[in-house]
Amino acid sequence: MSVSAQQSGDTRYQPPEVRRQQILSAAARLAAEDGLEGTSMATVAETAGVAKGSIYLHFTSRDDLIEALQAQVWAEMMEVPRLISIDKGLPWVERLDAIVEHWIRYEFEHHDLYHAVFHEVATDSKEPWSEARELLRQIVAGGVVSGEFDCGGLDTHVVVDFLLHGYAGPCYHDAQVEALIADMQRLFRRTVGATGA
Predict the structure, then answer these.
(1) What distance in Å separates the CA atoms of residue 47 and residue 171, rounded to the nearest whole number?
(2) Model pTM?
(3) DSSP state of 12
(4) Do residues 78 and 99 touch, judged by C-beta distance below 8 A?
(5) Which residues make Cβ contacts (< 8 Å) with residue 117, sequence separation at least 6?
(6) Which three-class secondary structure state does DSSP give residue 148?
(7) Which of 3, 6, 10, 118 has the fewest CB within 10 Å, making it most exposed?
(8) 98-123 burial, b if ≥16 CB within 10 A, otherwise e?
């Protein structure tokens, strides 16, 4: 890129990873505002400020773009829980509480985007719950081993699946977020038999 282009803030010349993120950000904005059902690659390109043809240098198809957007949303949703789950300074029950709070806040703050990318459009991609399931399983198992949780001999996989299914429903209801977080934390604690729950 020439010095004059850099100085003028010319956005025509961007590294591929920057351009790809601009396109994903534009797609996310459109998804949150209008949904993705009728959103075309041309509309995403226009919103991102890139040439219509150049979008295909980064995404081979609309499905490819949507799957990349799904992966980005999921990565954002899991980033904080990954750190919480390995924080040895927190008791297991506090890790569980913090993850529940993060997920609920994320879904409320990004509800339109999450709904658009996972529930409005059909792709071959699925919500990658396996990572969330494994993260929760490790927390439940760690809490049981430490004596903080008592699942009454239940298989931890069954407990985790119950928690994930129980968590998903309330996030789609018109609820006060603080009350919902407190209620879901109590339900999670009771389900795993947390001390003092």
Answers:
(1) 30
(2) 0.78
(3) S
(4) no
(5) 28, 31, 36, 66, 69, 70, 73
(6) coil
(7) 3
(8) bbbbbbbebbeebeebbbbbbeebeb
